[in-house]
Amino acid sequence: MTLSLAQLADHLGAKLRGEGDVLINHVATLSDAGPGAVSFLSNARYRHQLAGCKASAIILDETDATQTPMAALIIAQPYLAYAKTVKLLHPREPLREGIHPLACVDADALVDSTAWIGAHSVIEANARIGAGTQVGPACIVGAGVRIGRDCDLIARVTVLASACLDDRVMLHPGVVIGSDGFGQARTETGWEKVPQIGSVQIADDVEIGANSCIDRGALGDTVIETGVRIDNQVQVAHNVFIGAHTAIAACVGISGSAKIGRFCTLAGGVGVVGHLTIADHVDITGMSMVTRSIDRAGSYS
User: Fold this and answer.
1) Is residue 150 domain-resident?
2) What class of enzyme is it (predicted)?
3) Residue 251 belongs to a domain with what CATH number?
4) For residue 56, what are the domain limits?
5) Which residue among 41, 101, 103, 226 is least packed, with the fewest CB closer than 10 Å?
């Protein structure tokens, strides 16, 4: 897609500095950009690259705009504007509809006519797939699973245990939803497996990164609230609760029955001990271990 700089400014609600008829057709980094590209600056560490940038325009804030004479889209949140620009200039491929001839869909499953089931995917009995949902190749949707509208199971995703996904949930390759939680009772000779009979509830607009696992509850459900973002290789154990709009970076491990509040951030490699509570608006720095409940908003290491 190609837009004029004026059109892009209108779309973003940004202040335009420079010629509005300059054409923009892609997004690039400050160091790689050339004519036709729009770049962005949201991190002061890269400010030194402004001088050599060859982009047709740059998205930045008022302070950084004083550092360069280039054409600019000036806005309070450049990183958010960058995200919106990428979506506009680099749209996703059109949605597909139907069932691939190499997919296996049980006769008792209900797949909306506008959904897509990819090659080698399996949809088991009594599963429900909502309108516009894309189930990519080699996915497994287990018996009784409910998947809402406009979800995206990109590839090799497994959803089990009658889990319920609401609308616009995105699951990246290798995600497993509804695997058994780690419940083991010690015996005199070893271990007795504790049956896991709960499920998983995932609300609207959740995104879960590659090879992350969300275990089913032991009795009740594991719950992921609206707008949560989970990175790659994250382990969420049985009966965990994650509050709305919390973001969890790669390689975090959350032990069973922990409750994470709303609008929290857990940086890479954080560990959370089970059966504790973290308040809303808490930020945990990378590689930290949370061993007790946190009842006040703030940053913790």
Assistant:
1) no
2) transferase
3) 2.160.10.10
4) 3-89
5) 101
User: pTM for the whole thing?
Assistant: 0.95
Q: Tens digit of pLDDT for each residue in 94-121?
A: 999 999 999 999 999 999 999 999 999 9
- Please report where in the chains the tokens 């599963």 appear, as a residue: 127
Six token digits for residue 123? 């949809």
Catalytic: 238? Answer: yes
Tell me the two tokens of residue 83. 């995200």
The residue annotated as part of the active site, out of 11, 48, 90, 238, is: 238
How high does pLDDT run on average in the chain? 98
Per-residue burial over 124-146, b = 16 or more CB atoms within 10 Å of its CB, e = otherwise = beebbbbebbbbbbbbbbbebbb
Q: Which of 141, 113, 142, 109 is closest to 126 using CA atoms?
A: 109
